[in-house]
Specification:
Length: 130
């Protein structure tokens, strides 16, 4: 069985190879982003511990509202900045995954699932249906 056009098979294999290589590169980028997310999570935990110790120290010093002290405000802003960076990494990962889905050759992306439609629990014991 010969293909209709002799150059079409090799071109198709080349296209699939390029897509495979580019998606592999994107997977490595996602892996790097997840590494950065782990590092940011560690920084966030450290900032929260520091925030807790500063709030406790301010309360022991007799401060009525410890969140108004300058040191606590600075630590709180640092924690918010770390959370924003984590959100940026998650958005970048989502964009890379979307590019990978769009690059699939000849495959249409799966339709988005509606929340609650994938878990049909009607009639099972222990689940309330009302």
């Amino acid at each position: 069985m010969k293909p209709d056009k002799p150059g079409k098979t090799s071109r198709s294999l080349g296209d699939h190879g390029i897509i495979f290589i580019s998606n592999t590169g994107r997977r490595f980028l996602i892996l790097g982003r997840y590494s950065m997310l782990c590092w940011h999570q560690q920084r966030l935990r450290r900032a929260c511990r520091r925030l807790g110790t500063q709030v406790l120290a301010a309360l022991e010093a007799g401060e009525v509202n410890p969140l108004l002290t300058e040191a606590v405000k600075d630590t709180l802003e640092a924690a918010r900045g770390i959370k924003e960076k984590k959100d940026q990494h998650y958005q970048a990962i989502a964009a890379l995954r979307q590019k990978m889905r769009a690059a699939r050759a000849g495959e249409s992306p799966p339709p988005p699932e509606e929340p609650g439609s994938s878990q049909d629990t009607g009639g099972q014991p222990g689940n309330k249906t009302e």
